[in-house]
Structures are given as C-alpha cells and as structure tokens.
Amino acid sequence: MQEIFNIFIKSIFIDNMVFAYFLGMCSYLAVSKTVKTSVGLGFAVVFVLGITVPVDYLLNEYILKAGAMAWVDPSFADVDLSFLSFILFIAIIASMVQLVEMIVEKFSPALYASLGIFLPLIAVNCAILGGSLFMQERDYQSLAQATSFGLGSGVGWFLAIVGIAAIREKIRYSNVPPALRGLGITFIITGLMGIAFMSFLGIKL
Amino acid sequence: MSAEVKEKEPLFSPKNLKLIKTPINLSNPITVQVLGICSALAVTAKLMPAIVLSISVVVVMAASNVVVSLLRNGIPPRIRIIVQLVVIASMVILVDQVLKAFVYDVSKQLSVFVGLIITNCIIMGRLEAFAMSNKPWPAFLDGIGNALGYGIILIIVAFFRELLGSGTLLDIQVIPDGFYEFGYKNNGLMILPPMALITVGVIIWVQRFYTRDLIEKN
Prior knowledge:
The complex is a heterodimer. By secondary structure, chain A is an all-alpha fold. Chain A has one domain (2-202). Helices cover 71% and strands 0% of the residues of chain A. In chain A, helix 4 (35-64) runs parallel beside helix 8 (126-138), helix 5 crosses helix 6 and helix 8 packs antiparallel against helix 9 (143-171). Chain A is globular and about 70 Å long. By secondary structure, chain B is mainly α. Chain B is built from nine helices and two strands. Chain B has a two-stranded antiparallel ribbon with strand order 1-2. In chain B, helix 3 runs antiparallel to helix 7 (136-166) and helix 7 packs across helix 9. Chain B is globular and about 65 Å long. Classes of the chains: A mainly alpha, B mainly alpha.
C-alpha cells in the first residue's frame, strides 16, 4: 500500500512529466494561454492516463513481454513480442481516447462540451504514450502500481499546465523584451519552474 | 517527347528548394511552429544522442511523408489519423530495431524517446498539412526540410549543453586542462533538464531578434 502511494507522489513531483521529461510539451505550450482551458485539458489528460496506463500494463504483462504468452499455451513460452509494443500502445491509446470521448459525450454532455476539442488531441499527446512506455521500462510489479503511476503522472501534468497558464495570464501586464514575447518567455518560465520542481529531488521515497 | 520533358518541373526547382529552406529558419518546427518539442529536449544533454535522434527523425519523417503521400487518395478521411499513426509507428519500429542492432549504447540512452517519435507532433503535423495533399517528391523534400530544421535546433542545444555542462563534445574533452587548473568549473546546471528549456528560450530570443517578422504581438 505504501509503495503505491510512494509511486503516486513520486510521479507527481519528482518524475514530473513536463519538468523532468518534457512530455506533452506541444499541447502544454499551445493550450496554456488561459487557466480555464488548461484546467479542462489537464483533467482530460489525468483521465486518459489513468485509463491507458493500466490497460497497456495488462497488454504488456499478458501479451507483449518475453514469455508473457505462456498462459495461452506452454509452447508460446519463448515468444517475445515486445517489438510490437509501440504500435499496439498507440492503437490502444487512440481507441481509448475515442471510447472515452463517446462515453463522456453520452453520460456527461456538460463535461464533453467543456473538454471539446481537447479529447481527440490527447491521442497525439506525448505524455500519454510516454506514460505507457515509462511504465513498460520501469517494470511495475502490479496493476495497482501501474494505475497509481498513470494517475500520478496525469496529476503532475495537470499541476504544470495550470501553473504556467496562471503565470502567462499575469505576464501579459509586464514589459517583456519584444523578441522574447510569447513563446520565448514561456520556455524560460517553464525552465525556471523546472528548477523549482527539482527541489523535490531531495525527497527519498 | 521534348514537350513532355519541358512540362515537367525540374527535381530541384526553386519552389522545391524552398520546401527545404523555409523550415530551417522562417517556419522552424521547434522555434516557430512549436511542434515536436516533446521528444526533443530530454536527449540534448549530450551531442551524440541528439545527432542520432535527429537522423532517426529525418528518416522517419521523409519515409512516412512519402508513404502517406502515395496512399493519400486511398485513405478515407474519417480514419486518416489511425492510418497515419500506423505508418509512422511502423517506420519508428524499423528505426528502433536498426538502432538497437548497430548503436546499442546510444539506443539505451535514448530509452523511450525513440518510441516517442511516433507522437512527435511535427511528423503528424506535416502529414496532415502537407503530405495528405501533395505529390510524393515535394512531400519527401518537405519531410527532409522540417526534420532538418528540427535536428538543427536539437544539435545547437546539445552543443551548448555538452560544452558548458561537461566540457566535452561527442565525449572528447575540448576545454584544455589548463583552464581547470585556473579554477574553471563545468556548469553542472547545464546537464539538468530545465536548462534545455532555457537554452531553447534563448535560441528563440536570438532568432527573433534577427528575424523581426516573427515577433509576437503579446
């Protein structure tokens, strides 16, 4: 239980998707102009990461890993399909995003309207595929660990985008050098936020 | 026969050359279009992985642009995203297997970032914006141009980070020992991830300072 909680905290603060690995930067930079839209996108990312990472975990555990097919028949024990993981993970993500979109549209039209165009965009958000690939690389031991890693990464991403959006709303009133306006200053602020987040590195979990 | 040849555009006509040139500066994928940053910055602490990743992106992008451009009339618009992802993913699997076979150490350093070429927005973006509506040859050039523009930024960032952060280039020491004796120290901060963002920010600053058209209105 404690291990699961540790993974959750670690993936929010120490291994933050944006500040430590630069994942999901495209939508992070494009959609962080106002706090309201970035909250919407942040929720969508938490949601999709929380679903795709456990699903990809099961896929990896029972189909892709070396020897994972042994449950079908002992003769499959030496089959290693891990080279297929990119294409299968991205297929899972694309179809999950589609599925989530349909479910949300059906049961909560209000949420659907507020997420709007962001849901389909998430299929190509690197944070999602990155979550699955890190899950595979770090070899989590149980479904619960993988889920908490997925949710934690999502929450970390959410914090990052809401933070930068709030700063960008304020920075409009300051006198930034012309050539640095917009994109340039956003990069530098993100870097500074990253340095701030590095202070969490000292936490031993 | 001769009339037919005349009508054909030469392979490197000015229009085609422009497809390669503009993405390197005026519409650079990273600093202007803001695409493909995701998988880029984390590998720039050293020059070698940055070069390998740039080459991989050039290969994947040129190949998938050509394939999608060849298939463009046969792809139903509703499922084009999935088709594009499958094309890119197959190219990336090829590149990944080649890297694992020939430069295993670098491939280990790149870890998940080879896989993340799939969701590199710049590839999807060019497929959507260019390859879906153009012939294979211009699509090929467009792919090469954009991937080069991407690679150049990656290599510039990696150059400064490795030089200032570890005092080496491609793992060969370039800062003479004498400097260290006088008390020069490598700047360990440059190795850390946040400095990649700040370096890109500075590159954008310099580029926009010289190319006034790109300045944003705020």
